[in-house]
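In response to the reviewer comment on reproducibility (Comment 2.3), we provide here a single inverse folding case reported in full, input and output, so that an independent group could reproduce the run without further information from us. The structure tokens appear first.
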């Protein structure tokens, strides 16, 4: 698939070529970040590790493991342990997302807004 930027390739204008190369590098970084985000999973435990939850970056529960020994907790305590593990997993996923996105924002977005100083 061609992009609108492809029409500018080979223009002979060094500034356009430089901007096009930077654009392509930025797009590659965004695609890499997107791929890494889809792999993020938060993990949380409760009840001494007998309840383990995994969440997506959105906080949606994607996996729940309950050790058979946790069944002895009683329904109220087990429910509380599940919620505790899910909350911890969501916090963990949020931390992982922050770790991924913050450097990208600092390097790409903030870095691209900096203008070279005039050499007057």
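Designed residues, in position order:
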């Amino acid at each position: 698939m061609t992009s609108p930027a492809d029409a500018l390739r080979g223009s002979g204008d060094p500034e356009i070529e430089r901007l096009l190369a930077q654009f392509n590098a930025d797009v590659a970084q965004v695609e890499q970040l997107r791929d890494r985000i889809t792999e993020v999973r938060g993990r949380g435990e409760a009840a001494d590790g007998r309840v383990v939850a995994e969440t997506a970056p959105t906080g949606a529960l994607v996996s729940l493991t309950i050790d058979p020994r946790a069944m002895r907790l009683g329904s109220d305590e087990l429910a509380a342990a599940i919620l505790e593990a899910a909350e911890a997993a969501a916090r963990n996923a949020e931390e992982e997302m922050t770790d991924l996105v913050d450097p990208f924002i600092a390097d790409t977005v903030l870095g691209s807004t900096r203008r070279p100083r005039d050499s007057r």
